[in-house]
Design brief:
Layout (H helix, E strand, L loop, with lengths): L23 E13 L2 E5 L2 H13 L1 H12 L12 E6 L30 H13 L4 E6 L13 E4 L5 H17 L6 E3 L13 E3 L2 H16 L7 E8 L6 H9 L5 E5 L8 H5 L6 E6 L2 E2 L4 H13 L1 H4 L2 E8 L1 E2 L17 E2 L2 E3 L5 E3 L1 H10 L12 E9 L6 E8 L8 E9 L13 E7 L2 E7 L2 E9 L2
Parallel strand pairs: 1-20, 2-3, 2-12, 3-4, 4-6, 5-7, 6-8, 8-9, 9-10, 10-12, 13-15
Antiparallel strand pairs: 1-17, 11-14, 15-16, 17-18, 18-19, 19-22, 20-21
Helix pairs in contact: 1-2, 1-3, 4-5, 5-6, 8-10
């Protein structure tokens, strides 16, 4: 069963007077309340938007069916309810061509800035998503400044000429204004994707901490003075491996300008996030990029994603869990001509085919399970927050779990409590031999029992505040 919603076979889960613990024991501590979870999703690259728009032209019914399955956040809907989308500003390795919003060399006043350089299908698809999920949070950031602002003279690799720090901050402000003019509300903006990556085959930019800090300081001032005071600035946007250095130094230099930092999965481990959160516990953390690879094993991926991203990264303080491309074709295309990125090919959350059909991949199911635990119970109501959880019992090793509370719009309504549980006891060291685990769930001095099959299970129950 894939992303199937149902009542437990034996009827509702009942919390009763505690007895002996099960093979595993899940202890919920709802007095320990942590960060708000803003949801799950992926990047709407030019390539993803192009494929989705082509699907809309090819088969309108299939397009809207897919979009609903991805983004419908209504409580109890048969959908993943993705609610966080990352949108590049200008070209990436998944664009049809290399471009920025102002490619006129030396145009420091940015007279020729044009948000319309973005392919029109990006805004079309974004507006369609918003028509399904008006709670969507949109996060925008560039893969490179315009080439003429860089020592390399190209968007492909190199670094920003620091003489253009204020110009780049203005470029980002104009990007915010451009999205606003297109009817797209922006939740957050970043300074530079992967500032420790310079690759000469696609838009990238090496950006030292001091440069990112200076741009952030200037941008925050511009935003505050132009009606974007509530829009967040997110820093770093790179791998776990450097969590103790770049993002920490960024906060040391410009903490008042940055709301938080974001992480990618390609180097280091998820526990590295603690090297940042232990230093800056009041700054927000976002997990914003990891990519599947075409040809990998479905169940192996699900286990890794839950353990490291969609349960694990949240346990280490993240408020989001995002993948890379929202949609690609079955070969991991289309890509920017000449780029050497994504080798072997990257897999989209969704595969869109040229014949007007689509299918979802393992990334969809992993994120969908986590998403159902934290979406607002009431339309426009509070989002889920992570709460305390611990595991005990003989088979505690077989389960990975996260716990969340979603409060209500009305104080008269009971809160929703959720747990997302991975049972990965597949006895894979021998043969495929999935072992269900009967666990007790401890909550406010009461106890329930549930048998978790191998796979991912999301459970809900309700209790007063």
């Amino acid at each position: 069963m894939l992303l199937t919603y149902f009542q437990p076979d034996a009827g509702p889960i009942n919390f009763v007077t505690p007895g002996p613990i099960g093979s595993a024991d899940i202890v919920i501590n709802d007095t320990a309340v942590y960060q708000t979870i803003y949801g799950f999703g992926a990047a709407l690259t030019d390539s993803s938007a192009q494929l989705l728009y082509n699907l809309k032209i090819e088969n309108l019914g299939n397009y809207w069916s897919l979009m609903d399955y991805l983004f419908n956040a209504t409580d109890g809907a048969n959908a993943a309810g993705f609610s966080f989308i990352r949108v590049p500003l200008g070209a990436t390795d998944f664009s049809a061509r290399n471009y920025s919003y102002d490619d006129v060399s030396g145009d420091t006043p940015l007279y020729d800035f044009n948000i319309g350089e973005t392919p029109s299908y990006v805004f079309t698809v974004l507006r369609d998503i918003l028509s399904i999920n008006n709670m969507l949070r949109v996060y925008i950031l560039p893969w490179s400044p315009p080439g003429w602002m860089k020592g390399s003279g190209t968007m492909d690799g190199g670094s920003l000429n620091t003489a253009y720090i204020s110009v780049m901050a203005n470029y980002l402000l104009k990007s915010l204004q451009g999205f606003q003019n297109e009817g797209i509300p922006v939740y957050a903006i970043g300074i530079q994707n992967e500032p420790e990556n310079s690759n000469p085959t696609y838009p990238t930019c090496s950006m030292p901490v001091a440069t990112e800090a200076d741009i952030g300081i200037a941008l925050r001032t511009y935003m505050n003075g132009n009606g974007f005071g509530d829009t967040k600035i997110i820093g770093y946007e790179h791998n776990w491996a450097d969590a103790a250095n770049y993002p920490v130094q960024l906060m040391q230099q410009a903490a008042s300008s940055f709301d938080g930092v974001s992480f990618h999965c390609y180097a280091g481990t998820v526990s590295d996030q603690a090297l940042f959160t232990s230093r800056y516990p009041n700054k927000e953390v976002y997990f914003t990029e990891c990519s599947g690879t075409i040809g990998t094993d479905w169940w192996t991926d699900i286990k890794w994603y839950m353990d490291n991203l969609f349960i694990g990264s949240l346990a280490y303080g993240s408020s989001t869990g995002l993948m890379w491309n929202l949609a690609l074709d079955g070969n991991g295309n289309p890509k920017l001509p000449g780029t050497n990125s994504c080798t072997p090919p990257c897999r989209g959350v969704v595969q869109v085919n040229s014949n007007g059909t689509w299918s979802v991949n393992q990334e969809f199911y992993a994120m969908g399970q986590a998403s159902k635990a934290i979406l607002p119970r009431d339309m426009g109501g509070p989002w889920g927050q992570r709460i305390g959880i611990s595991l005990g019992g003989e088979f505690d090793w077989a389960l990975v779990a996260g716990a969340y509370v979603t409060k209500r719009s009305s104080p008269m309504d009971w809160n929703r409590y959720s747990i997302v549980v991975l049972n990965w006891d597949d006895s894979a060291s021998t043969t495929w031999n999935p072992q269900p685990v009967t666990a007790t769930i401890e909550f406010r001095g009461l106890q329930a029992t549930y048998t978790f099959p191998v796979g991912v299970t999301t459970l809900w129950w309700y209790a007063p505040d």
